[in-house]
Amino acid sequence: MTTAVDAELARTLRGELAANLEAAGHDPAWVKAVREVPRHLFVPEFHTQDANYRWSRIGPNDDAYLSTVYSDRALTTQRDGDEPTSSSSEPSLMLTMLEALDIRPGHRVYECGTGTGWNAALLAHRFGDAGVTTVDVDPELTRAAVAHLTLAGYHPLVHTGDGVAGLPEHGPYDRFITTCRMRAIPWAWVEQCADEAVMVAPIGWGLVRITVENDRVHGRFLPDGACFMPRREDAAGPLFDVLDKVSPTTTSVSVTGLLDRLAFPLSLALPSHNTCTWYDDAGTDTAVGIWTPDGSTAKAGIDGSVRQTGPRRLWDVVEKLDTLFPTAPCRADFGLTITRDRQRVWWRAEDGPGWELPTLS
Ligand SMILES: C[S@@+](CC[C@H](N)C(=O)[O-])C[C@H]1O[C@@H](n2cnc3c(N)ncnc32)[C@H](O)[C@@H]1O
After folding, report:
1. pTM for the whole thing?
2. Mind giving me the DSSP string for 117-139?
3. Which fold has domain 240-324?
4. What CATH superfamily classification does 7-225 receive?
5. Is 89 noted as a catalytic residue in this protein?
6. Which residues contact 150 (CB under 8 A, 6 or more apart)?
7. What is the residue-wise DSSP string for 314-343?
8. Largest distance between two CA atoms of the chain
9. For 197-223, what is the mean pLDDT?
10. Interval between CA 153 and ligand 1 midpoint (Å)
11. Which atom of ligand 1 is nearest to the CA of 162?
């Protein structure tokens, strides 16, 4: 829906957002794109959650609309019940990813996760429509993104489908950017790369920057964290009811603060896992739960009891990480090396401690 907003106010607020991004050290060329591409055309409304987890929609008639659209915040634009399924990503995070890509004029760029189309518009604004291909799995979103892009005057190629497959007929691509969380890098993307291609993708709670040099595909994680929504795929829920019938073992790992300290390495060692915490009436954490899309589930209590079920012994992985990382590790110490058959995240050195990622065709 086209929105009747105060265009002058929108320009002023956009200028302030751009100035803040520039003051934070972002590339002036990308900051200029933020200043010149009206984000409100891509986010005609967004969803917010109050302190009681109740959702409401905010649009141009709400006081907070324009100031929020032009703040450095991710804005939920679609949800499935309580679960956000699409958003316009946080502007500073988007610029961090675009800067890491080091795009040059004439490059072809593939984006997995069109969402609102705002990021595709930033790309098209700087480098022209012809080099930009963007894919989203949800036809409702790609339809809306085309409408937003057209309104703003951009016409990149927008395709509906699973972004994991790439789009070989429009490649080879010099740059790949992904704005949904991946469990691994699809090999199809590597096959659609031009020489010396670069990819920036969220893997777990981090952003990996990979270069493709002949047959060597490798890279390191950026120091910045990233909390992208996961790529849509089938996933089993936790089996806590089954755990109640499992005999407990014991662990020496304390659950207090564990999920914060190990959040990043856990997101690599157990791709697409989920966690939850149980609290007592005083707000003290009493147990943590962890589960993966294959149905493996573990629950550990503050009393040192552990119950596990499913194809993988998740708590065994937690115990190893606990030994390796007595304090939260720095993301930039991790890297990723990829071959057709194997993807391995490593810590500190390619032959150091590491974890296999699942291969995606
Ligand atoms: C954070 S949003 C994208 C933000 C977007 N770049 C923007 O500027 O608005 C993540 C998007 O990834 C999409 N997505 C999830 N799984 C996908 C898949 N398998 N292939 C392509 N897109 C996918 C979601 O539908 C969602 O729109």
Report:
1. 0.93
2. SHHHHHHHHHH-GGGEEEEES-H
3. Double Stranded RNA Binding Domain (3.30.160)
4. Vaccinia Virus protein VP39 (3.40.50.150)
5. yes
6. none
7. HHHHHHHHHHH-SSPPPGGGEEEEE-SS-E
8. 65
9. 95
10. 21
11. 20
